[in-house]
């Protein structure tokens, strides 16, 4: 593991704009992290220090990153851990992600969570260079990030997406729905494929429009409200009356387009009828809830308890890792049907495709 002096760590942290979340002024109510000094590398007990490196959009995206932040906030409140956060920026190089992880470590945050598959190579390299540090990466189970000190946290997004696809098919009045993906990657394809499978399970002849905002290595599709808005506007103008997005912060544009068109949208990751701006919440019919907060909290608690295990941990429908939301009551009339599909997926009578 690479070491640095306290002065170097502080300077480096400041240079990267890392936002401290464990101070007595920033800590969630009830947390004891502000009064506890230090921690052992990767160790458990009071004073555990956790660094979180966000994907593009960072805390405040009302979606994926915020779900991760909620898990850290819960750990601060309930477990008394101290946290420090840093966010990615559009178009940054791989070296920037790797350096962000190392600066968290050098600042003493020796339990590190990387939010998003874009960190895969950086986590793999940082884990090898820092064997005493425990890492978690969200949404990647590739060999790039694997290591004896890495937990790979993944979700069965296709299962949750099946449920909201079924909801869209049950609710559409035009027999045409849409899907907006942030970046065309294998991960986001899982959302699309599951959504299409759920919709076609209800209505085999339904029309589904699909649009991806960017292609790798351009990941700005997760933080481009204007692109999300334009994509959804095109779908509504073509006759779709419900559009599902898996586009991170760009989803705000989908909601704005739905509001202007008098149509409906489906949120992702968080229950966005609770997290989106108040003026668009009424157009969010449901959300595919991906419980990133559960995965984050589970990792932190395991480290603190001394029960950390490296490898891939999958949070599926059976494990409560994905679901659909009911906020606003717009799917209350079809809830029994959705729950039938949910149970069939859990018991294995429906196998949802993921690619």
UniProtKB/TrEMBL annotation:
Gene3D superfamilies: 3.40.50.2300. PROSITE patterns: PROKAR_LIPOPROTEIN. One of its GO terms (cellular component) is plasma membrane. The keyword Transmembrane does not apply. The keyword Lipoprotein applies. CDD domains: PBP1_PrnA-like. It is a lipid-anchor. Residues 50-354 form the ABC transporter substrate-binding protein PnrA-like domain. Coiled coil: none annotated. Keywords: Cell membrane, Lipoprotein, Membrane, Signal. It holds the Pfam family Bmp. This is Nucleoside-binding protein. Belongs to the BMP lipoprotein family. InterPro entries: BMP_lipoprotein, Peripla_BP_I, PnrA-like. It is found in: Cell membrane. Residues 1-19 form the signal peptide.
């Amino acid at each position: 593991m690479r070491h640095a002096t306290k002065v170097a760590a502080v300077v480096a942290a400041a240079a990267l704009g890392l936002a401290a979340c464990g101070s007595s002024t920033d800590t969630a109510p009830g947390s004891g992290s502000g009064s506890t000094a230090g921690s052992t590398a990767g160790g458990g007990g009071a004073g555990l220090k956790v660094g979180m490196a966000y994907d593009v959009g960072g805390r405040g995206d009302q979606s994926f990153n915020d779900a991760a932040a909620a898990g850290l906030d819960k750990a601060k409140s309930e477990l008394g851990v101290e946290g420090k956060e840093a966010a990615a920026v559009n178009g940054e190089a791989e070296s920037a992600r790797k350096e962000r992880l190392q600066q968290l470590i050098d600042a003493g945050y020796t339990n590190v969570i990387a939010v998003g598959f874009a960190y895969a190579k950086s986590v793999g390299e940082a884990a090898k260079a820092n064997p005493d540090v425990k890492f978690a990466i969200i949404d990647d189970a590739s060999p790039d990030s694997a290591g004896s000190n890495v937990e790979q946290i993944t979700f069965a997004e296709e299962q949750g997406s099946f449920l909201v696809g079924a909801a869209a098919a049950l609710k559409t009045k035009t027999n045409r729905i849409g899907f907006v993906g942030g970046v065309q990657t294998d991960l986001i394809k899982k959302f699309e494929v599951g959504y299409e499978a759920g919709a076609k399970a209800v209505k085999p002849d339904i029309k589904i429009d699909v649009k991806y905002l960017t292609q790798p290595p351009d990941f700005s599709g997760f933080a481009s409200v204007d692109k999300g808005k334009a994509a959804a506007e095109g779908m509504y103008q073509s006759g779709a009356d419900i559009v599902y997005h898996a586009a991170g912060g760009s989803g705000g544009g989908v909601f704005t387009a739905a509001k202007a068109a008098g149509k409906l949208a489906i949120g992702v990751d968080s229950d966005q009828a609770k997290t989106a701006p108040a003026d668009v919440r009424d157009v969010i019919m449901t959300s595919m809830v991906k419980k990133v907060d559960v995965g984050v909290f589970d990792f932190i608690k395991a480290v603190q308890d001394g029960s950390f295990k490296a490898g891939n941990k999958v949070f599926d429908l059976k494990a409560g890792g994905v679901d659909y939301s009911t906020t606003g009551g717009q799917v209350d009339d079809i809830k029994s049907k959705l729950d039938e599909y949910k149970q069939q997926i859990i018991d294995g009578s429906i196998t949802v495709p993921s690619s």
